[in-house]
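User: quick one, sequence for these tokens?
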């Protein structure tokens, strides 16, 4: 092969490699963003569940305190 053909072949290989790397990079970024979005969605869901549980616990505690008879003082 001549030097010109070798240079063209190497140039084409570099271009193909650069294109492949760009596609793989875009795919990896899309997967990363999807993962981050999923984590954020789970965080929001879990926070809502925790706040609802804390509110229910506080309500139950207030109801129990209201229903309990007052303590008598000993004389």
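Assistant:
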């Amino acid at each position: 092969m001549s030097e010109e053909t070798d240079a063209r072949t190497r140039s084409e290989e570099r271009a193909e490699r650069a294109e492949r790397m760009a596609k793989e990079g875009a795919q990896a970024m899309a997967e990363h963003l999807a993962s981050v979005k999923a984590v954020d969605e789970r965080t929001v869901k879990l926070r809502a569940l925790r706040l609802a549980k804390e509110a229910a616990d506080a309500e139950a505690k207030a109801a129990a305190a209201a229903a309990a008879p007052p303590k008598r003082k000993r004389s």
